[in-house]
Amino acid sequence: MMLSNALPRGLSVAGLIILLDQLSKYWIIEKVMRPEGVDGTPFHSATRIEVLPFFDLVMAWNRGVSFGIGNSGGEWNAVILSALAVAICVGMAVWLAKAETLPLQLALGGIIGGALGNVIDRARFGAVADFLDVHVAGYHWPAFNVADSAITIGAVFLIADSLFAGRDSSKN
């Protein structure tokens, strides 16, 4: 049974992710990491604030893709990565319009929202703002943000839906 509200539901999730992502980045860039009275671009701080023994707030600018891969790219890097992300989002929106299961709709909405949240950063700053820093038992995960989390969680939902939803979801 095709859910007629698949696209609006998934795009609502995407919109919520974009809103949460951009609000969290505004808060970290403008309120937490920017010292009072400092002018200039937001590419200014390497401050680390310990929140928990395994979790810090940091300010890291990623000009590449996930985990800093391609971080040394030139000025066209942001344009190319953004265009690629938007093209993938369009394809995922087409898939979303046909999605029959709620987990698939949520997954695609999360991935689309996360990708577009990072596209907004690339358009505004030429890089993606990462600020969540997790380190446990000597292992240090690269800094990430709300959009990255939504993409990762969406990908996990996507895999779970494809593995466990049964034969009917193979139409998606």
TrEMBL record:
Keyword terms: Aspartyl protease, Cell membrane, Hydrolase, Lipoprotein, Membrane, Protease, Transmembrane, Transmembrane helix
BP GO annotations: proteolysis
Protein's UniProt name: Lipoprotein signal peptidase
Superkingdom of the source species: Bacteria
Membrane topology summary: Multi-pass membrane protein
Gene Ontology CC annotation, any one: plasma membrane
GO molecular function: aspartic-type endopeptidase activity
Subcellular location: Cell membrane
Keyword Protease carried by entry: yes
Enzyme Commission number(s): 3.4.23.36
Lineage, uppermost ranks: Bacteria, Pseudomonadati, Pseudomonadota, Alphaproteobacteria, Rhodospirillales
Main localization (coarse): membrane
Listed pathway(s): Protein modification; lipoprotein biosynthesis (signal peptide cleavage)
Transmembrane segments: 76-97, 104-120, 140-164
Pfam families: Peptidase_A8
Summary of the function given for this chain in its UniProt record: This protein specifically catalyzes the removal of signal peptides from prolipoproteins.
The reaction(s) this protein catalyses: Release of signal peptides from bacterial membrane prolipoproteins. Hydrolyzes -Xaa-Yaa-Zaa-|-(S,diacylglyceryl)Cys-, in which Xaa is hydrophobic (preferably Leu), and Yaa (Ala or Ser) and Zaa (Gly or Ala) have small, neutral side chains
Entry annotated with the keyword DNA damage: no
Family statement drawn from the similarity comment of this UniProt entry: Belongs to the peptidase A8 family.
Enzyme class of the recorded protein, top EC level: hydrolase
InterPro entries, A to Z: Peptidase_A8
Source organism of the structure: Paramagnetospirillum caucaseum
Active-site residues (renumbered): D130, D148
